[in-house]
Prior knowledge:
By secondary structure, the chain is of the alpha/beta class. The chain contains 13 helices and 15 strands. It has helices spanning 15-34, 49-55, 61-70, 89-96, 145-158, 175-191, 210-224, 247-256, 268-281, 319-331, 335-350, 356-359, 370-379; strands spanning 2-9, 38-44, 72-75, 101-107, 123-129, 139-140, 168-169, 196-201, 229-231, 240-246, 263-266, 291-293, 298-300, 353-354, 366-367. Strands 2-1-3-13-12-4-5-11-8-10-9 form an eleven-stranded mixed sheet, with helices on both faces. It has a two-stranded antiparallel sheet with strand order 6-7. Helix 1 links the parallel strand 1 and strand 2. The structure holds NADP nicotinamide-adenine-dinucleotide phosphate. NADP nicotinamide-adenine-dinucleotide phosphate binds at residues 14, 77-80, 90, 286, 301, 304-307, 316-317, 320, 357.
Amino acid sequence: MEKVTIPFxxxxxxxxDITRASHIVFNEAVDKVFDGTKxxxxxxxxxxxxxxxKFGNYLPDETFETIKKYKIAIKGPLTxxxxxxxxxxxxxxxxxxxxxxxxxxxxxxxxxxxxxxxPEKVDMVIFRENTDDIYLGIEWPAKSKEAFRVIEFxxxxxxxxxxxxxxxxxxxxxxxxxxxxxxxxxxxxxxxxRKKVTLVHKGNIMKxxxxxxxxxxxxxxxxxxxxxxxxxxxxxxxxxxINDRIADAMFQQVLLRPAEYDILALPNLNGDYISDALxxxxxxxxxxxxxxxxxxxxxFEPTHGTAPKYANKNMVNPSALILTGAMMFEYxxxxxxxxxxxxxxxxxxxxxxxxxxxxxLMDGARKVGTMEFAEEIAKRL
Length: 381
Ligand code: NAP
């Protein structure tokens, strides 16, 4: 029997509930698909409150070392400690491991109540830049000495005037970081036989950051993938179309013509907005899988947070983490495990066996707890 080690971080709040439940589904899916010839060895690593209790440190070095060694891990949500000296544990993990792409597949899971009429038309994968743009946190409060200095510099050296009581934020977007993100999105499109890559930006207004994102994106396509990629409207024999859309127009497009979009590559802030908007279209963040991926390492995590009021109540929906695991198995090349998990999850929801969050939106649902929901999925694998 082949054993594959996967490090996992349980997470805070509802993390332990959903982690326990998801392992039932993952173990059963691997067992069924490989007929007992493969097995996952779960290796617990620590971050967040559990790490602090055990080691007095929210993010121990061993956690980074283990992820670097195995090059893969899956995690539950983490609370950002107030006054802990971090902007966020998640941001710290992403930055220290240089996990530059936040990848979120958004597709409709059959049976889930959704606010739009045809949610099944949504089938997109978002590649959101993780390490550049305004979320880098380069900012100073209004009236601070740093803000005054920057304002003075802008006036004296650059001839630009800014209101003296302004807070200041800096939005750097680099060629290197943009190109590696778009490169990953195009490679994914090639590997998975997808048809289109759309660069989403606000380049009509922010020409040298957002506009440059678009230009550098096209450059990667032209210089590195010309055999595979053609521009929208171009007569050329290539399987993938690359186009671009202005971010605000894109919010309309994903609502009005979702079937026309496939892979999206976005800078950090646009990506943040559009990920949640798209997820809402297919039924909300309780079902949103995600991953942070770099050149060597991938860290898989659901998009929702720790929902602390539901911790240890065996109540919440583990679907986002289960779908995150499905994504992880696809990354490992175990596509059949991914397919089996998604089918069993859909079968369970189609039979209206659901946790409280979906039960309140469905007529005639059978409401079950987190563990029972996972057991029902496992039965249908
Ligand atoms: P949240 O934890 O995602 O919870 C907000 C609401 O979303 C919950 O009250 C619940 O809604 C619903 N929800 C979330 N997960 C669910 C699940 N698995 N099943 C069913 N419903 C679910 O967002 P938050 O309250 O803004 O954040 C709480 C903490 O999580 C913060 O410390 C934040 O920093 C952290 N966080 C961490 C991550 C991460 O680790 N990646 C991401 C986001 C937030 P109802 O009450 O309406 O049922």
